[in-house]
Every structure is written in C-alpha cells, then in structure tokens.
Amino acid sequence: MEREQYLAAIKPRMPEKRYIHTVGVMETAINLAHKYGEDVKKAETAAILHDIAKYADIEWMENIVRDEKLDERLIGWGSELLHGPVGAYIVQSEFGITDEELLNAIRFHTTGRANMSRLEKIIFVADMIEPNRRFDGVDRLRKKAQKNLDKAMSACVRHTLAFLIDTKQPIYPLSIECYNDMMNREDSEG
20 to 30 A from 177, CA-CA: which of 25, 113, 114, 169? Predict the structure, then answer.
C-alpha cells in the first residue's frame, strides 16, 4: 500500500484532531529519517499507522493482549499504553506488514524500551515533537532532534517520565527500562 491508502485506512478510526497529529508525525518522521539515514518509507508507514488503535475499545484491546499472548502487564493500563502493541497487531493482521522493526516502532512508540532501533527512536521522537504538539519544552526537544537523535530520544524520555511523576501517574516498566538504557548509553559515551 502507499501513503494515501494508509491515510485513508486510518482516517475513519480517529477524530480529525488525531488525524492531523498523525500527518504531523508522518512529516516529522520523514524529515528525521532523511536526516539520520533511516528507511524513509518504513518511517512514513510506521508514523501513519502508529495510532491506528488509539480509539479502539479498551476491553477489545485487552482481549487481543490475552488472545495473542502479548505482554500481560498491559492489562489495566488503558488505551494510552494498549494502543501501541495492539496497533502493531492490527497492522500485521489487517495490512499484512511483517517487518519486525516497523512493527516495533508502532509497538513501543508510547513506552519506549531498552535497545531501541533508530526507526523506533524516530517514531517515538516524531510522535512527541510533531508540529501540532504544544507543551512547555517542545521547542527545546525539536532543536535537539535536529542535532542528535539519541540525545533527543533521551530528552523525550526524561520529559515523559517527569510529566508522569509530576502528575502522580504510574510508570510502565518498559519506560523505566528505556530510561535506564538511555542513561547507561550516555554514561558510556562520557
């Protein structure tokens, strides 16, 4: 499938505002893929499809987690965390996409994880800094993304964790593993 077909497939599954966000993520991911030598088509496809399950029924998504033997820790975390792994499942089952790196970019775009690929980092960062995002610090994150993908990823993860802590929300274990991995890499680089 091509860009327009994927966009047409996701549009009815989300409100207009989320569709505009998705187009912004796509444009940002394409830019970052060019900048950092990643497969642009993969980045484009992962970005378009990353929120395909965002508005799916939570009970249905939890059943997918159980039926498909996805990470059981996802049960009870709500749409914010379920939509990544379930989105990867939908993309594989409905569109026949089997590229594991592309699926992982969708699967982990909200939580992150240790040892993320360049494509996964691009989708994670693009989701956070796309042009329609408005929050304190987003411009700083956008500047970092244009200079160094790993430093941008690290800053995005720290921003997310600080937000969760400040708002007294629980932190999913993969996000902690992602943070620890990023910090260990920064320490080893000096």
Answer: 25
Query: To which residue do tokens 């909200």 refer?
Result: 110
DSSP per position, the chain: --HHHHHHHHGGGS-HHHHHHHHHHHHHHHHHHHHHT--HHHHHHHHHHTTTTTTS-HHHHHHHHHHTT--GGGTTS-HHHHHHHHHHHHHHHHH----HHHHHHHHTTTT--TT--HHHHHHHHHHHHSTT---TTHHHHHHHHHH-HHHHHHHHHHHHHHHHHHTT----HHHHHHHHHHHHHHHHH-
Residue carrying the six token digits 């960062």: 125
Identify the pLDDT of residue 144: 97
Residue 3, Cβ neighbours under 10 Å: how many? Answer: 13
Query: Residue 114, class by beta-carbon neighbours within 10 Å (0-12 exposed, 13-18 middle, 19+ buried)?
Result: middle
Work out the mean pLDDT of the chain and round it to a whole number: 95
Query: What is the distance between the alpha carbons of residues 100 and 103, in angstroms, rounded to a whole number?
Result: 5
Q: How confident is the model at residue 189 (pLDDT cuts 50, 70, 90)?
A: low
Q: Cα(158)–Cα(171) distance, rounded to whole angstroms?
A: 12
pTM above 0.90, yes or no: yes
User: Average pLDDT in the 26-48 region?
Assistant: 98
Task: Identify the CA nearest to 50 among candidates 16, 21, 12.
Answer: 21
